[in-house]
Amino acid sequence: MIDNTTLDNLNNSLSGDVLFDNLHKTLYATDASVYRKIPLAVAFPKDEKDLKTLITFATKNNITLIPRTAGTSLAGQCVGDGLVVDVSKHFTNIISFDEKAKTVTLQPGIVRDSLNVYLKPFGLFFGPNTSTSNRCMMGGMVGNNSSGSTSIKYGVTRDKVLEIDAVLSDGSTAIFKEITSADFIKKTKENTQEGKIYKSLFDELSLVENQQEIKNEFPKETIHRRCTGYAIDELLSSDLFGGTSKTINVAKLLAGSEGTLAFSTSITLQLDPLPPSQSIMVCTHFKSINESLNATVIAMNHNLYNCELMDKTILDCSKNNRKLAENRFFLQGDPEAILMLEVSSNTIEETEILADKLIADLEKNNFGYHHPKVYGADIAKVHYLRKAGLGALANIVGDKKAVACIEDTAVALEDLPNYIEEFTQIMAKYQQNAVYYAHAGAGELHLRPILNIKKKEDVVLFRKITTETAELVKKYKGSFSGEHGDGIVRAEFIPLMIGDKNYQLLRRVKKAFDPNNVFNQGKITDAFAMDENLRYEIDRVEPEIKTIQDFSDNEGILKLAEKCNGTGDCRKPVEAGGTMCPSYRATKDEKDTTRARANTLREFLTNSTEANKFNHKELKQVFDLCLSCKACASECPSNVDIATMKAEFLYQYQETNGYSFRNKLFANNAKYNKLGSYLPTITNFFTNTTLTKKILGVAVERTVPKLANQTLESWLKKHFATSIAAEKTKKSLYLFNDEFTNFYDTEIGQDAVILLEKLGYEVKTVKHDESGRSHISKGFLKEAKAICNNNIATFKDIITDETPLVGIEPSAILGFRDEYIRLADDKKSAEKIAKNAFTFEEFLAKELEKGNIDTSVFTSAAKTLKIHGHCHQKALSSTHASFQILNIPENYKVTIINSGCCGMAGSFGYEKEHYKVSMQVGEDTLFPKIRNTPEDTQIVAAGTSCRHQIFDGTKRIAKHPITILKEALV
User: Residue 279's beta-bridge partner residues?
Assistant: First the structure.
């Protein structure tokens, strides 16, 4: 038994860290698979010396080390009860790059797409391209022998691995690279761990009967995606083992070994020139899966760069994701399947010819009913739709999910239609409508049965379907693991797939590399059972979780958390674009990902024995740095809305543990601002003193927003009392006077009214409550619910499509479309108002599209503008509306900054303990881009928090789009 003192001593002996608190063990108990095992601890080594120390510790204490990078593996490779070793935080350097030789040497924690960003200026890239490429890391790609959508052109990761530096099971190091046969023989005579490995390989593979057994039982050589077991068949090309090659590279064996043989510290890869500059994607529509597969055989004669499949289930799941829905533009009708067929060349004219020839060939053979061509940046959108398919499958509401178990089968391309036809018969026998998608051109489809693995009968099916599919794959001499690896889910089927003699050979290879079984036990050899240690307890009594918000759209908050399948989109780095997840980008800690928050909430809501299941310090820790940006609500393919769940957690936790003075102050900000607005000058003086900031727990570095000399409410009364009503107006609207505009940004509110009236609109107001945004963000949900109900009652009879509700502050008005639906007692009225509640920019953009805006009233002077979008705008609306309306003045040059989150997030950035993270979020993308913007370029930001953060971080003044347009009036 290893106690905490022992683990403390281990932690003290490392340059890095060993964490064994309940939270971190929970976070690392799962990956993107269906498995769950609580580890002993989690280590974050900083260097090779730390790795050696960990290996010594594991050997001495008879435990296993589970290597991990991004944790996006689907087969359970990163799950175990030993010591998880996460190298994603510190092993992240490019060690060397040789442009002439087209090679790069790097540490295993480099993100695949980040590597390609580095390589692009040199005209090179790393070809294998997984659906998780914007967050998966090279160590994981090598460990799984990943391939992805480009394998038909660029091969698999194993093809690119030239050299691996590794720490062996005895703590010694070795460099595995291409060597001559003579040098291989020399190594067999060395009295070292490395020498023993080479000798064992030589003794085993030089036997003719072993060579023949491998050739007889391993998958067909024409199947390039082959990850079943260890790649001993790769070594048979050597003249030492019956082949013709005078060189041999054991690094090829490590590729696909899932960290069970050695611990890689650096990897040297062969690179490829960038693909041709011009591409066209033909997105052929089919009426059946079988038709699409037969068409694949024809299409693959056309030198394709991509040949990917999406079925109707994937396409339907994308309808319910805000971001994915935007990428469905190419669809016509309701196809059963889509083939994404990409042709490329160096001129668009030549590429058009290639695309036309492809379409003509498909039509000649009567394949497909619609063949749209997709160009330029739109190709990436279609790729994103397919890549996000895995996460989108989690959008299936309820406990039945598309389960990864048979999703990695690969057969020869000519066998694919018949294989799928037989597979479909297996599915029909079990009354399954499986999911079909991914790499049709490579003979590999990601097939998934839809099962409820909380129920015993479906866990039985889980095994039966996997077993019968394995037998079918064996019939076609295919590979049961094409690119996702064996892990837990497929490892126990290796004897079936390659024969028991070969399996025993794999066990001896494992023993030669790792005699003490230090590295990743239970994977590939001596496997864990595929139907045990599942994420959910079988036939459990489902916990009843009462919430103040309505989570019925997901059958409760627990099932919303369970929608996170662990694929880790929330770990994508800054250069990947988007906003999710700003806290992870700032800290690089798994604890601060969307995945961590969902997994921790699921764990405690499921297993807590507390009367209040939310009452856990671990939940408080994991939600602490969530900025409630809502990027996860749109960018996460599974729509795991952490901001909404955080608000519920804060409410439930504080109901038991009390509400702090500072939280009360921030939540009731509008009430106190109303008092302060009677003497705004004095209030502003005191709130900006260092003493006041320290008393309130506000970062002293911050400038506290100043109350306006006059509230917007007061100005509106005077304005409407003295203004002359226009004889004719285009339309009436109600202005939502949010609490931020009312007390702080009064001038923007005034500009809004003046601008709208100038454009011919009747602006109406009605006395209403504040938005409740501050209450929601601080978890004061009783108060937020009351505010919501009051506002619904106020507006339900007056807001229509003819008289919409228009707001200035995005986070305030967009609450009507989001949290109000969950909080309102009168849900029907809330949904009606939501359809007619718009940001100011949305309203004007819609009117512009209708031709209702007289553009002649705006200046013709030139101006350059750069827009930073509010996070809630990006998640619940769009920054495109801002772009549209700011282009109304004919000579305004407008661009949208790809800026992510600003980092302020309401009160978050003012809180002293969050200040550094808040500023780091800003530094990740927004601040540098603004600093690089010329002084005469106007920064535009609709969010009040955004404008304050921009000023604090760059000393640049940002203006609301309303002010820009009002100033542009002539």
Answer: 344
